[in-house]
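> call design_seq(struct)
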């Protein structure tokens, strides 16, 4: 027979419940994910426009990984959008 105070042999649902009950807090590791890119900015004097995204869908928490990649994208303006200097 299992000892009554040893929770390590119980099923995973009981372990999760025990964690909440005995420790009051459980931490779930959440990796960050990129949100959608913003719309392109207006064409600047350098004939480039930009758009951004952030690692907030969700944000990394409890030791989760930050998003891989860049948060800023730049490109040459096209279609006569360049104002020139």
């Amino acid at each position: 027979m299992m000892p009554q105070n040893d929770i390590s042999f119980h099923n995973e649902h009981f372990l999760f419940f025990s964690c909440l009950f005995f420790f009051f807090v459980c931490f779930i590791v959440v990796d960050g994910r990129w949100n959608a890119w913003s719309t392109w900015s207006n064409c600047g004097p350098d004939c480039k426009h930009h758009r951004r995204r952030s690692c907030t869908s969700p944000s990394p928490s409890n030791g989760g990984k930050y998003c891989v990649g860049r948060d800023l994208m730049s490109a040459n303006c096209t279609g006569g959008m360049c104002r020139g200097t």
